[in-house]
Every structure is written in C-alpha cells, then in structure tokens.
Amino acid sequence: MGSYEVSPEQALQSAIRIVKEGRVQGVKIEGGEEMAPTIRRITQAGIPVVGHVGLTPQRQHSLGGFRVQGKSTAGALRLLRDARAVQEAGAFMMVVEAVPAEIAAIVTRKLRVPTIGIGAGNGCSGQVLVQIDMTGNFPPGRFLPKFVKKYADVWAEAIKGIEQYRDEVKSRAYPSEEYTYAIPKEELAEFERIVEEGPDNQKR
User: Fold this and answer.
1) Which top-level group of life is the source organism from (predicted)?
2) How many CA atoms are closer than 13 Å to the CA of 186, on its beta-carbon side?
C-alpha cells in the first residue's frame, strides 16, 4: 500500500523498481475503474499487470472491513464494470476476491482474460489460497475467512516437534551419538591424558 495510489506515474516508477530490483515479471494492482489509468500506464510501459477486484484487502477500511462484495444487483454490476475496466486497461488476468460464486462465474464468462478466485466459488478460471492458511500454519483461535479450507495442520505438527525437541534436550537424549561428530579414540585418549596431567603440559 502506498506504492501506486498517488498517481499513474508513481505507480509506474514503483513497478519499474520492483521489476528491476525485485526481479519479478509483473505486478498486482488492487482496484477497479478508478485504477484503470494506472494499470494502462504500467502495461503501456511493458510491465504485465494482474488486476484485483471485489474485496481489495488494502482498501478494506473503505469497504467496511473484510466484507463480501457483489451481494446486491448494484454491487454485482459495479464488480462487472470494475472487472471490464481492469481488462480494457491491459491487465492480463485478475484476482476476484470474496464474491458470491454465481456472480464470479458470470463475470468470468463476460471477460476475455482469466480470473483467479479467492472466496469466489469454483466458476473462476483458477484458484488461489494463502499458503499459511491452507497449510494450517497459525496458532489456534486465529480468524479465518469462510473460504479458507485447511488442508493440513502444520502448526500442530510444528508444536509437536518443538515439544519433543525440548524434552529430548532436557533428558539429554538429543543430541545422541548419530547427531554428533566423531573423534578417533586414540586422539581422544591423548587429549584426555594431557588435560589430566595438568595445565603445564597444555602449554607445550
């Protein structure tokens, strides 16, 4: 946030820097009709743009928080206008977030570019989920949007491993011999002999 909202020129400068220094192949811009001039400026400079319509997390406060978009006829029409404007400005695809499945499917059919849904049903061209969410890599009690399906419980597995590590360190079961470096017995014996004979011999 703040890298592209001021003006199309600011957005282009940021995009050029991200491509050059970040070595990325494109940028993502949140917003609909109002961001079309910015998307057009960046794509005209030869930088691919992914659009993002529906729920736009960086603008969540102006949307009343993380709320489903396009739930009314007026809202759905606005979403379609936004998606078309983003497409016509040159975006090669767009994320559609937190939109009723039926609306997202219709919008997808009305576009030439693919849509990537997140909380927008299976009628989009493709899907995306945040890896931390889908793998369950977060502590218990964290709020999850309705569309997030946990495919694993990485957090619980990590805690289990960390607790086992703690217990084995306390009991000195870890590190066991297989996790330590070896020294030839004769070298160890010679070292122990020198140490046991006293500090004077260690100076030789």
Assistant:
1) Eukaryota
2) 0
